[in-house]
Each structure stands twice: as structure tokens, then as C-alpha cells.
Design brief:
Phosphoenolpyruvate Carboxykinase, domain 1, alpha+beta, Phosphoenolpyruvate Carboxykinase, domain 3
Length: 640
């Protein structure tokens, strides 16, 4: 059989490419490529073995094919446009294929596996005619590690093949060394028919189907990297299922190293829905970034250890400016390999919203020629750049990258944080009373409003469990159960924190924090991990004390922190918190029939604590009403 697949392929590719495939002792890989080629019918097949020449060829072809343009002044910079209907992940057309007789939770988009395969194969038939199918081999996680997952992508997009080069570790050698029994993920992607600007034309036929039972992802008529690069949220869906079978966690986490007293560094992982401050937390000045988007977490000898699945960033460029994100701004405006997508182009420069300077009055964007004052069919002003405009770069381009990226053992997680977009309820930072409390009260209760990173109505209030809900290839209750049990099996589960950068004054509607305040919250968490800061026991979690924060504001930001600000920010808002618990409970009762009983007991206990506190202190309770415990004395504080 192996010989038959190879013979079929021989006719479709150069001798050189054929030999590269023969070096892989994997009939499954050959079969996948044969079937992809027979279905999509490309003019040729290019097997990339990751040599520098081939990687350079891919980058060059992305430009020659005009999927990217290098018409930018800065060396190494290119830009790419996705179509107007292809500017984010597309929930409506992204579906799990489920076997007959089984079903995932109601909140998860799914369809019958057989029907889905017939539909998507129909759309992929002959889709690569006139194009080359590029085959890339990659690994998720560091090489030669318990975390490593092999994967391959067949795509007709040079932009996608180029993006994966910046975002993932090369894997051709790993495939060469792999035994036949090695499990791997596969993606088949076609951008479909393109218009004269090399943009996917048939957006109404965009489909992204995840055949998680076969470790395969299909994607067609789309270019937006979140839909087309198989190893972002698409392979995350496959990894969640694998993690469930094997007893570990695949998470939508950034990871960062936070410096503490005495030169120590503590690693944190954090889940935030899109545009809730994930990258800007991971990029805090003076700290190190280890991961931006996806992390695998394992119990290794009772210790919670984690790796970055990726090795690059596909980041939101909106609001990156010298004041708020100085570091990334500097990288984006310096020479180096970067792909900008869906920004405004003018005078050979990329421009984006919130970049901290006046934008040009006209230029080229994803809609074509743009002029200030333009309106769309609905009469709305057309923005110069898309709010979900992005940059793609390798982590090695960042001066603040963490040195442990390639460590096969990963790093020990000191703490985990969850952060949503909650204007009314939760305070800026708090610590869970236990693993279970933190996982439920901050992770499972994570609320946000939909933003521009997803193609649908914006500003809808929603629960987004662990910021991963769309990707969970299991019944959601099973996923939560796995999470709760994972912590229980660790020798010492990392403390769990909830953060909220979006709290507003209930009367004025103004944000109560500056964007940079998050640095103080992170430093406080670092101290808490090592029992070097006190905490106040409030009904929703352990809160920082004023004196610790005042010192940290001064040390970290050089700012005075007034008692008045502290009280405003950390006041427990009982009605808003009770309403939040009600939304969370309703969501799980309605959508997650297999939710673990622990979830409801944690919610109930929190409700009772809130009601009890209200009886004593009223609806809005200053943090100073609660007792502070374990607070370091002034001498210890001075040494922080
Ligand atoms: C996100 O939206 O969470 C992203 C970008 O990280 S995407 O690749 O589209 O998932
Ligand atoms: Mn993400």
C-alpha cells in the first residue's frame, strides 16, 4: 500500500520533492497527501523540508503570488489582506464533526460527521487547480518532549505556509525520526477561488470543519489565519480531545515570567477571551513572555508544568502604541520579519487604530482604496484599518522572550489567572480560596462581550468558560471535570487568580483603572504565590490589602495610589455579583447537563457569602470591612 501511495504521488511532484516524502516512513502521511491531492487537484505539490532555502522560497512565493506584498519601507515587513467577510474566526461555519449517535454540549457548534465530510469535500474538490499544494511539517510544543505533537498542513496558500513558519517549530526532521505509530494532526486548507487582489472570493462557501475523531481539520474559502492556519484554534480542538484521553490540559493560555524579589522568576499562565488584555499582560515591560495564545499543561511528578505550543505571535495590533505597549510597538516599527494583516497602507507604512498618532486621510486597506469619511452600505463610517488587524512574528524577534521556550520539560506554573471583560461585577484582581473555587468562580464564570475577533454581532454579553468554550471537543461538563481533577492530582495546585481590567464606575461609566495597572496586579500575584503579601477574605475571593498595593504602585509604576481609588476598585458590589452568579448558573443549567456538582456548590457558597456579607454591610462593601490575613509587617513590605 505504501508503495502505491508513493507511486501515485511520484506523478504529481518533482523528483526532489518525491525523495523528501520517501524519507518519511509513514504510510498515513503519504495517504493523507495523496488523498488531498486527488481531491483538490493542484498543479503541483511542494514538500517543504524546512531548509533555509525552502523557507526563503515560501516567503518569496507569498510575495510573488501577491498574497502578501513587500511594498513597505521596513526590511522584512510584508502585509496581507483578508476579504471583508473574512476578518476573524467565524463561529457560524466552524463546526465539529460528530459521529452518529454522539453529541457535544449544546453550546458547541457541531454537525453529523458524514454529512460534514461530504459537504467539505465537495467544496475542496478541484479547489487547488492552477495552484501549488504546499506541505508543511511542524511540531506543537518543544522538540523531543512529552508535550510534542507532530502535525502537517497541506495548503494552497503561500501566506499560510509563511505564517506557520513564524508561528510554529519546524517538524520535517521530527517526522523523519517518528515511528509509524506516532499520532499526528493534519490540516487540509484551500483559500478557494481568489479575486484579482488574491483574496478568497466565495466567502459564502467558507467552511471550517474539525473531524476530531480523525485528528483532521478542513478549511476552505478563507484566508484569515485563525481559520486557515490549522494549528491555532483548530488543532487546539484536536489537542483538547487528546488531552482528555491522556489526562493533561490543552489551554487557551498565554504564559509569562514575572520577576519577584531577590531575582526570582515565577511563571504564570493566563486565559483571556480575545481583546481582553492577554497579549498586553504577557508583554508587560520588564517581564518575559513565554507564550501568547496556546499552552499545554501536564502533571509531571506532581508538579504543574507547561509549554508554549507555538513559537510566534498572531497578535492584535489595534491599540499597540508607544505609551501602552512600548515594547511591541518598537518591534513592529523596526526591521525584522513581520506579516501585517488588515492594516491601512500608506506611504509604504502600516497604520492601525490606536497606534498613538494621527492616521493618514486615505490609503489602501482590506476593502480597497480607503478615504476618511467613507461610509458603508449601512451608512456607518468605514474605519481605516480593521479592529482585528494583526501582526505575525516569531517570538525570537522579541527582546523580552523567555529563555525557556524550547525546554522539553516546560516551566513550573506558579499561578494561573483568568480575565474577562466585566464592566460591573468582579474587582481588578483576587485570588481563589482553592483550586476548585478559582477554576469555577474565575475560569468557568469568565464573562466577556463578543468583540471584533469573531465575525458576528459585537458587544454581546456571554459566558466564555476558560476563554476556550468554542474549542472544546468534549461535553463541556467533562472538560470541567477533567480540570477539577487535574488540580486534585497535583502535589500542590497553583493558586488561581481572577483579573478584570474593565471594571467601570457604576455611576459615571468610566473605567476605574489605567491600562498599566495590570502590572501591579501581576506583581501582587507573584508575591502571593510565595506568601509574601497579605490578603483580605472577601465573599468573592482574597483581595489585596491597601498597603501592599500602595507600595507596589509606587515601585512598579512610580504612582501614588490613593485609598479612595483602592476602595472604589475593590468594593464588593453585591447586587452585580449576585446577578453574575445567576447568569453563570443559568448558563450551565441550560447548556451543560453534565456540569459537575462541584460547579454548583462553589456558586452556591459564593452566593451565600455575598448574601451574608450584605446583611452586615449592605450592597456595596468596602474591602476594609473584611479582615486582612497574613499581612506582612512593614519591615517585610519594605523588602518586597
Ligand atoms: C483569538 O481570537 O483568540 C486569537 C486569534 O488568538 S485566532 O487565531 O483567530 O484564534
Ligand atoms: Mn487566542
Amino acid at each position: 500500500m505504501l508503495q502505491t501511495y508513493l507511486e501515485t504521488l511520484q506523478a504529481r511532484m518533482s523528483r526532489d520533492d518525491y525523495h523528501k516524502l520517501c524519507a518519511l516512513d509513514s504510510p498515513g502521511v503519504h495517504q493523507f497527501i495523496v488523498e488531498a491531492a486527488e481531491l483538490c487537484n493542484p498543479d503541483g505539490i511542494f514538500i517543504c523540508d524546512d531548509s533555509p532555502d525552502e523557507v526563503a522560497r515560501i516567503r518569496n512565493m507569498a510575495i510573488v503570488s501577491r498574497e502578501e506584498s513587500a511594498a513597505l519601507a521596513m526590511a522584512g515587513h510584508t502585509f496581507h489582506f483578508d476579504g471583508p467577510y473574512d476578518q476573524g474566526r467565524d463561529r457560524a461555519v466552524t463546526k465539529f464533526l460528530v459521529a452518529k449517535g454522539s453529541t457535544l454540549s449544546r453550546a458547541i457548534n457541531q454537525m453529523d460527521q458524514d454529512e460534514g465530510l461530504v459537504e467539505i469535500r465537495g467544496l475542496l474538490r478541484n479547489a487547488m487547480k492552477g495552484h501549488t499544494m504546499i506541505v508543511r511539517f511542524l511540531i506543537l510544543g518543544p522538540a523531543n518532549s512529552a508535550f510534542t505533537i507532530h502535525c502537517l498542513e497541506c495548503t494552497d496558500s503561500w501566506y499560510v505556509a509563511h505564517s506557520v513558519d513564524l508561528l510554529y517549530r519546524h517538524g520535517y526532521d521530527a517526522f523523519r525520526q517518528a515511528g509509524r505509530e506516532t499520532e499526528y494532526f493534519k490540516t487540509l486548507h484551500s483559500a478557494g477561488r481568489l479575486n484579482e487582489d488574491m483574496v478568497s472570493l466565495e466567502h459564502e462557501k467558507k467552511r471550517i470543519y474539525i473531524d476530531y475523531l480523525a485528528n483532521t481539520v478542513y478549511s476552505v474559502n478563507t484566508q484569515y489565519a485563525g481559520n486557515s492556519v490549522g494549528f491555532k484554534k483548530l488543532a487546539l480542538r484536536l489537542a483538547i480531545h487528546k488531552a482528555h484521553r491522556e489526562g493533561w490540559l490543552a489551554e487557551h493560555f498565554m504564559m509569562m515570567g514575572v520577576h519577584g524579589p531577590g531575582g526570582r522568576k515565577t511563571y504564570f499562565a493566563g486565559a483571556f477571551p480575545s481583546a481582553c488584555g492577554k497579549t498586553s499582560t504577557a508583554m508587560l515591560p520588564g517581564e518575559t513572555i513565554l507564550a501568547d495564545d496556546i499552552t499545554y499543561v501536564r502533571n509531571m511528578g506532581g508538579i504543574c508544568r507547561a509549554v508554549n505550543v507555538e513559537s510566534g505571535i498572531f497578535g492584535i495590533v489595534n491599540d499597540v502604541n508607544p505609551g501602552d505597549d512600548a515594547l511591541i510597538y518598537r518591534v513592529l516599527t523596526s526591521p525584522g520579519e513581520i506579516i501585517f494583516s488588515n492594516v491601512l497602507i500608506k506611504d509604504a507604512k502600516p497604520w492601525w487604530l490606536g497606534m498613538g498618532c494621527e492616521l493618514p486621510k486615505e490609503g489602501i486597506n482590506y476593502g480597497g482604496h480607503w478615504r476618511e469619511g467613507m461610509t458603508d452600505a449601512a451608512g456607518e463610517q468605514v474605519l481605516p484599518a480593521h479592529q482585528n488587524a494583526r501582526y505575525t512574528l516569531a517570538l525570537k524577534a522579541l527582546p523580552n522572550r523567555d529563555p525557556e521556550l524550547q525546554n522539553p520539560l516546560g516551566v513550573e506554573l506558579g499561578g494561573i489567572m483568568y480575565g474577562g471583560r466585566d464592566y460591573r461585577g468582579y474587582g481588578p484582581v483576587q485570588q481563589g480560596f482553592s483550586w476548585e473555587h478559582g477554576i469555577v468562580a474565575y475560569g468557568a464564570a469568565l464573562e466577556t462581550e463578543t468583540t471584533f475577533a469573531v465575525v458576528e454581532e459585537e458587544r454581546k454579553h456571554e459566558i466564555n468558560m476558560m476563554s476556550i468554550q468554542d474549542f472544546v471537543s468534549l461535553p463541556l461538563g467533562q472538560y470541567l471535570k477533567n480540570y477539577l481533577e487535574f488540580g486534585g492530582r497535583l502535589k500542590k495546585a497553583p493558586p488561581v487568580f481572577g483579573v478584570n481590567y474593565f471594571l467601570k464606575d457604576l455611576e459615571t461609566g468610566e473605567f476605574l483603572n489605567d491600562r498599566r495597572d495590570k502590572h501591579v496586579w501581576v506583581k501582587w500575584m507573584e508575591l502571593r504565590v510565595h506568601d509574601q503579601a497579605g490578603a483580605i477574605e472577601s465573599p468573592t475571593g482574597r483581595l489585596p490589602g491597601y498597603d501592599d498595593l500602595r507600595l507596589l504602585f509606587s515601585q512598579v509604576l512610580g504612582k501614588d495610589y490613593t485609598k479612595e481609588d483602592y476602595v472604589k476598585q475593590f468594593t464588593i458590589r453585591v447586587p452585580e455579583n449576585l446577578a453574575k452568579l445567576c447568569r453563570v448558573e443559568t448558563f450551565y443549567r441550560e447548556n451543560v447537563p453534565d456540569a459537575p456538582p462541584k460547579l454548583f456548590s462553589v456558586i452556591n457558597e459564593q452566593r451565600e457569602r455575598l448574601i451574608g456579607a450584605r446583611e452586615h454591610f449592605g450592597d456595596y462593601i468596602s474591602p476594609e470591612s473584611f479582615a486582612e490575613q497574613g499581612s506582612p509587617d512593614d519591615q517585610a513590605r519594605a523588602n518586597i
